[in-house]
Amino acid sequence: MSWLTVETPLPSGPMHIAVTPQGVAAAGYGGRDDELPPCTDASKVSLVTERITAYLAGRSRELGLPIDWSRSSGPHRAVLQTLWREVPYGRTVTYGELAARSGVFEDVTEPGLAARTVGQMMAANPVALLVPCHRVVAADGIGGFGGGRVGIEVKRWLLTLEGVLEPTLDWNGPL
């Protein structure tokens, strides 16, 4: 796994992306202080940078990057893949709806447990943005997002980009 940094207009700053021969294996918001092996494949760096930049500039609604699913497994992978396949650009789904769609929680009877578990799964999404956990919201509002206040601002920014939320006066994204 090797890493590259993509500058973004997001409130969190740059994204850090890990690539493997299979595709993008990790994507995260904000800085990394770790010493990570840099991606030296110029074509991969160019492709990932170009696609993420176009998406965040509003020029593309699809990232179209291959995903290396190896950092998730079992129910977590099933929920992430359901989100990736079934919730398109500009749409949202609640934590509970995603739990039901995934089929993973059919035997869970405790009220709210499936939705809370999906929330934890979204917080552990290894390929943020590519698997759009920002599109998963609470039944009564926007819900949470990793990274505290900055994380919520990233979620709001992405949902505004996709037309789910109206731009606010401080919106700095594409029009």
UniProtKB/TrEMBL annotation:
It comes from the Bacteria. One of its GO terms (molecular function) is methylated-DNA-[protein]-cysteine S-methyltransferase activity. Pfam families: DNA_binding_1. GO terms for biological process: DNA repair; methylation. InterPro entries: MethylDNA_cys_MeTrfase_AS, MethylDNA_cys_MeTrfase_DNA-bd, MethylDNA_cys_MeTrfase_DNAb, WH-like_DNA-bd_sf. Residues 77-164 form the Methylated-DNA-[protein]-cysteine S-methyltransferase DNA binding domain. It catalyses: a 4-O-methyl-thymidine in DNA + L-cysteinyl-[protein] = a thymidine in DNA + S-methyl-L-cysteinyl-[protein]; a 6-O-methyl-2'-deoxyguanosine in DNA + L-cysteinyl-[protein] = S-methyl-L-cysteinyl-[protein] + a 2'-deoxyguanosine in DNA. Signal peptide: none annotated. Keywords: DNA damage, DNA repair, Methyltransferase, Transferase. The keyword Transferase applies. It is an enzyme of class 2 (transferase). Its EC number is 2.1.1.63. Belongs to the MGMT family. Involved in the cellular defense against the biological effects of O6-methylguanine (O6-MeG) and O4-methylthymine (O4-MeT) in DNA. Repairs the methylated nucleobase in DNA by stoichiometrically transferring the methyl group to a cysteine residue in the enzyme. This is a suicide reaction: the enzyme is irreversibly inactivated. This is Methylated-DNA--protein-cysteine methyltransferase. It comes from Streptomyces rubellomurinus (strain ATCC 31215).
